[in-house]
Automatic annotation (TrEMBL):
Pfam families: Aldolase (PF01081). The keyword 4Fe-4S does not apply. Residues 1-19 form the signal peptide. GO terms for molecular function: lyase activity. InterPro entries: Aldlse_KDPG_KHG, Aldolase_TIM. Homotrimer. This is 2-dehydro-3-deoxy-6-phosphogalactonate aldolase.
């Protein structure tokens, strides 16, 4: 089952990348983002792509410039996630044929992102908007627009977000924190997948 869950591995080190990636894929999470403010992120992304690129969508988060998009593309990353809505970054990502998931919070940002070629929208920070914020935004978005809630969305409230029309989620510290063992990550991933499956029915 291809679940709409993106694992956000902020702080991941290259030496832990493969074991962590394997644990996530085994649990049923096959979209993996390594934020660029992690240690040697391009090394981690390159290793993950080489090992799992045929069965997982691998890429970078906290991507702020077109140059960083190029860096991620060079190591084989296909997923570009940003905390903000920068049309230049989005359109460059789109031109390269990569998935672009910019952070948006307002209708203005949402429409600017879609116009620039975003694959989907990352409602961030989700904790501030809440499910009610997404419910209010949804009626004006073009039909079929994918919106993932990130920051404040997790196993304890998947159901509320899905009821508010969330298409998927980015999961960070609820799933991974630097220093966690692979078995801890595996246990968290299994819990999150089970909670999502239950909420999604």
């Amino acid at each position: 089952m291809n679940r709409p869950l993106i694992a956000i591995l902020r702080g991941l080190t290259p030496s832990a990348a493969l074991a962590t990636g394997q644990a996530l894929i085994n649990a049923g999470i096959d979209k993996i983002e390594v934020p660029l403010n992690s240690p040697d992120p391009l090394d981690s992304i390159g290793r993950l792509v080489e090992e799992f690129g045929d069965r997982a969508l691998i890429g970078a988060g906290t991507v702020l410039t077109p140059g960083q998009v190029d860096d991620v593309a060079r190591v084989g990353g296909k997923l570009i996630v940003s905390p903000n809505c920068d049309p230049e970054v989005i359109s460059h990502t789109h031109r390269l044929g990569l998935e672009s998931w910019p952070g948006i919070f307002t209708p203005t940002e949402a429409f600017a992102a879609l116009k620039a070629g975003a694959s989907g929208l990352k409602l961030f920070p989700g904790a501030l908007a809440g499910p009610a914020g997404l419910s209010a935004l949804r009626p004006v978005l073009p039909k079929g627009t994918l919106v993932y809630a990130v920051g404040g969305a997790g196993p304890e409230n998947f159901g509320q977000w899905i009821a508010a029309s969330a298409d998927g989620f980015g999961i960070g510290s609820a799933l991974y924190k630097p220093g966690m063992t692979v078995s801890e990550v595996a246990a968290k991933a299994a819990q999150i997948v089970a909670a999502y499956d239950e909420a999604a029915g």
